[in-house]
Amino acid sequence: MTEHHLCTARDGTPLQRADRNFVELLQEVRVTRTGAQILFGLLVADVTTGRAEGVAAGAATFLVCVGL
Predict the structure, then answer these.
(1) Rounded CA separation 41/35 (Å)
(2) Cα 47 to Cα 58: distance, rounded to the nearest angstrom
(3) From 11, 42, 61, 67, which residue has the greatest number of CB atoms within 10 Å?
(4) How does pLDDT run across 19-65, given as a tens digit for each residue?
């Protein structure tokens, strides 16, 4: 087996540091995905309500596409 050089940031190996970075990245993706789902739900709800009758069809399509 190969030896890992100790990392000075948190006294861990480079592999442990990479694992921590990967876990943090996954958490950011989860938060972003949840935010996008909420935003998309609000946009769809706004487009499908009666208030959106005055909105042009192109604008409604744009709002839905932005939510995707």
Answers:
(1) 10
(2) 11
(3) 67
(4) 999 999 999 999 999 988 888 888 787 777 766 556 666 676 776 67
pTM of the model: 0.48
Question: How do the domains of the chain map onto residue ranges?
Answer: 14-67
> Cα separation of 12 and 18, whole Å?
10
Q: Cβ contacts of residue 4 below 8 Å, gap of 6+? A: 13, 14, 15
C-alpha 6/C-alpha 14 separation (Å) is: 7
Q: What is the mean pLDDT of residues 4-11?
A: 57
Which of 23, 25, 1, 4 has its CA nearest to residue 14? Answer: 4
For 45, the token pair is 């709800």
Q: How far apart are alpha carbons 37 and 43 in whole angstroms?
A: 10
